[in-house]
Give the backbone structure.
Amino acid sequence: MTLDGRVAVVTGAARGLGREHALLLAAEGAHVVVNDIDAEPAQVVVDEIVAAGGQAVAAPGDVATWETGEALIAYAVETFGDLHVLVNNAGTTADRFLATMAEDEWDSVVRTHLKGHFVPTRWAAAWWRHQAKAGEPVAASVVCTTSTSGLAANPGQSNYGAAKAGVAGFMVTAAAELARYGVRVNAVAPLARTRLTEAVPELARRLAPPAEPGAFDAWHPANVSPLVAWLASAACAVTGRVFLAHGGTVELYRPWAVEAGVEKAGRWSAAELGEELAALT
């Protein structure tokens, strides 16, 4: 597997998971556009990549903004001549139980995650569609970031969970639409230590680095990045899938699969149906 010469945009790449993704993609040979809403730490990541012999540029901005998304994809193409990989990673949280959640807490989280996936993917898709229609070969990859909060449940995160479930649904549809242009779309559900987890005292305690020197840090965000790098490679043929990644474990996750059902040759009564379904659940 190689990423030599592939051009990758990573959103939310100044810290945590995005930073580790950008560093590994660059180490594997990709030319990386480091996006983050915070310009200074984004440039720090770029400087680290360049110091290690890689190629990278910073492109700060809010990827949930239409103009920024368009400019981000255009900048990648103008700087490195093409675009092969988009890693949608930008995110935020505003945890609160549903009965006390404020409107802006809902809106900001859903906007950052869900619209922050749609906007750059939309402009990347337009570029790949243009290439395909011009007869240029396309072997591109989009990696989305979902979460077990959206695939299962985490009380206090109805905004975050809804957005992340939406990301998984977006991924499935995008994979089906973009396959005709030579684009694969997958999603990663990371279990790792980030700024978002460290803001919650209980999570920060549970996900802390091991005290023993040299012990494997199962919660380090860099553990997730090899999966992202593989999904980003031209050698990977997988599309439309969700992978859960934690430590040294990667699992194929199948949300919304049919688990069981009941059937009859005709219409159920509510009472009869309820009795049958209660036995299933």
